[in-house]
Amino acid sequence: MNEFELIRHYFAAARCAQGGVGVVRGIGDDCALLAVPAGEQLAVSTDTLVAGVHFPDACDAFLLGQRALAVSASDLAAMGATPLAFTLALTLPSASEAWLAEFARGLQQMAENCSLALVGGDTTRGPLSLTLTVFGRVPAGQALLRSGAQAGDLLCVGGELGDAAGALPLVLAQRDATPEVAEPLLARYWSPQPQLALGQALRGRATAALDISDGLLADCGHIASASQVALHIELARVPLSAPLRAFAGEEQAKVCALGGGDDYRLAFTLPPALLADIQRDWPEVRVIGRVLAGSGVQLLDAAGQPIEPPRGGYQHF
Ligand code: ADP
Ligand code: MG
C-alpha cells in the first residue's frame, strides 16, 4: 500500500472524514476550508504524542487513536469552544495495515464522541509520533481564558482526579489489579472524555478555566499567575475515586490527584452564586478551594492551615 492508498483507505474514507458542520472542504486538496459563523472566533490547539515519551512503545492502536484525539479535544473544552474539525500528522515506522485499521477505529470513535471532523493531515515515515491539531468555534470574546479569576470566586474541578496517573503502573504492566479496579483506571488513562459540554456551559459564567494535563497544583499555578491571584486548595475536598483509593492507597491517591497529570478534566473559577446552576447539570463538579488576593497556589488541611503537598512513595514520572 503506497502513501496515497493508505491515506485514502484509513483516513479519507473514515466516517469522521465525510464532512461536518463548518467543513467547506475536507481531505483531498492542499488545504481544508473551514467556515466560522460571523461573530465567532476560531480556537486552535496542537498536541504531539511521541512513542516512548507520551505513551508506551508497544500499546493498543485502538486505544492510542482514542487517547490522542481526546487529549487534543480537551483543549477545546478548556476554552469553552464548540468542536469543528481536526488534522492528523502521523509519522509511522512502517505501514502495518492491522495497526492502521485499529488506530483509525479508535480515532473514529473519539471523533464521533466529540463531533470533530477529520479534514486533513500528513503521513510520513519515521519513529512513531502523532500531531493532532483541533479547531473549534467560540462566540467572539467569550472564550474561557486562564486570566480572569477574581478574589471571592470558588475554585472548582470537573470531577475525580488522579485516576490516569494512578493507572500508570497498570498501563506499563508493572502491576496487576482485579478487573473492578483496573478497568475504570485504565479507561481514564486511555479514553479520557473531554468535558466539552461543561466547557460550553461555563461560557459567560466561569471567570477562568483550563484542562488539567500536568497535575492539579501545576495547572492551578497557571490560573494563579495568569489571573494575578492566589488559589487556596483544601486537600480534603479534592475528589478521589474509589478504584484509585483501592489501587494506590489513600496517600498515593492524593499524590496522583495533586501532581499526576493526564486528568483532562476542567479546573475553573466561578462566582459562588453560579455554583448551584452548574452542579444541577454536572453533579460531579466539586468545589476544592477559593480565589484570594495574592499569588501562588496554597494547599490547606481540614483546619485551613497551610500544608506541604504529600510526597509519593514511588516515582511515576
Ligand atoms: P500535500 O503534499 O499537498 O501536503 P499530501 O499528499 O500530504 O498533500 O496529502 C494529501 C491529502 O491527504 C491532503 O488533503 C492531506 O491533508 C490529507 N492527508 C494526508 N495525510 C493524512 C492523514 N494522516 N490523515 C488525514 N488526512 C491526511
Ligand atoms: Mg503533505
In short:
This protein is of the alpha+beta class. It is built from 11 helices and 13 strands.
Descriptive report:
The chain has 317 residues and is α+β, with helices and mostly antiparallel strands. The protein has two domains: 3-139, 60s Ribosomal Protein L30, Chain: A (2-Layer Sandwich), CATH 3.30.1330.10; 154-307, Phosphoribosyl-aminoimidazole Synthetase, Chain A, domain 2 (Alpha-Beta Complex), CATH 3.90.650. It has eleven helices and 13 strands. A seven-stranded mixed beta sheet has the order 8-10-7-11-9-12-13. A four-stranded mixed beta sheet has the order 3-6-4-5. Strand 12 and strand 13 (306-307) form a beta hairpin. Helix 2 (61-79) packs parallel to helix 3 (97-114) and helix 9 (242-248) crosses helix 10. It is globular. It starts with a helix and ends in a 10-residue tail after the last strand. Residues 313-317 have low confidence and may be disordered. The structure holds adenosine-5'-diphosphate and magnesium ion (MG). Adenosine-5'-diphosphate binds next to helix 1, strand 4 and strand 5.
Index terms:
alpha+beta, 60s Ribosomal Protein L30, Chain: A, 2 domains, seven-stranded mixed beta sheet, 11 helices, 34% helix, disordered C terminus, binds adenosine-5'-diphosphate, binds magnesium ion
